[in-house]
């Protein structure tokens, strides 16, 4: 970790971090009460005070109803927000709590509530305080699950979710720098015990971080890898757009119902995999196809193409799509609905 990572964030640096949103009508700040999001609120308030004109800030805390201390933490955030001159709202997750997959369900509910809060104040953006450390953990989690390039591109600085722009201004900032900022400003924050609960994957990976960092797998290097892969992923997607247009020009019928098999086979393997994924997702009715399964299909298509056979070389269903390959044509259409097994 470099010395820069340890120094508090200056007003000048905050101006750069928030510059993209200076002309937005309003910004919702997602503030849990932990150090990262309290720093988000404090820095955003200081930045906004220094502007003549700028977005209306609203701080929102979601109380998931999972920890008894959450209500008090939300009140602490409100007190600080008020002192900083920012209106604050607490949104409560009142829905049923599932027995399994609780963190994911809580996250989905949280983003829905944040989007609702944004709409109600006329804001198009929700800002979260995801840091470089969160990005590094995301990358490790996705590596452990065998993700491809798109997954390893990590979290984006800007994404759309629930009809709202989700912005992450601190994606390249180390958490220690946010803590140093609050320490200097003498501002307290909460610590969420579930962040170190070893029954969840993310805290277990977080515990490994110091050992990994000592071997060079630090958050800076992991986040840099995510940035590079995001760039590569965007370039590859453009190539897939081009390949789609190329196939449309060279195929005898509509893509993906009647594709020229030779034109498809001539594409680079990565482009074939991505194109198949796209086309299967376009016509399939069983949710997104798994990358590994599409890779296996592409391999099977190459083998089938080499067999020198006549008629149908390969016929397979995947994610609700039916893929048929002959010497001349590749055809991808919705698969017939699966027959229910009799009980
Ligand atoms: N209870 C909450 N209320 C408001 N904002 C929250 C809350 N919890 C998290 N956030 C926002 O989301 C950011 C990321 O939080 P955290 O890392 O805990 O999320 P997560 O559960 O890992 O899910 P994800 O990273 O996908 O959002 C925080 O910095 C904060 O801006």
UniProtKB/TrEMBL annotation:
GO CC annotation terms, alphabetical: cytoplasm
CDD domains: TilS_N
Superkingdom of the source species: Bacteria
Catalysed conversion reaction: cytidine(34) in tRNA(Ile2) + L-lysine + ATP = lysidine(34) in tRNA(Ile2) + AMP + diphosphate + H(+)
All copies of domain tRNA(Ile)-lysidine/2-thiocytidine synthase N-terminal, residue ranges: 27-207
GO molecular function, one term: ATP binding
Known function: Ligates lysine onto the cytidine present at position 34 of the AUA codon-specific tRNA(Ile) that contains the anticodon CAU, in an ATP-dependent manner. Cytidine is converted to lysidine, thus changing the amino acid specificity of the tRNA from methionine to isoleucine.
Family: Belongs to the tRNA(Ile)-lysidine synthase family.
Entry domain remark: The N-terminal region contains the highly conserved SGGXDS motif, predicted to be a P-loop motif involved in ATP binding.
Protein's UniProt name: tRNA(Ile)-lysidine synthase
UniProt source species: Tardiphaga robiniae
Source taxonomy: Bacteria, Pseudomonadati, Pseudomonadota, Alphaproteobacteria, Hyphomicrobiales
Gene: tilS
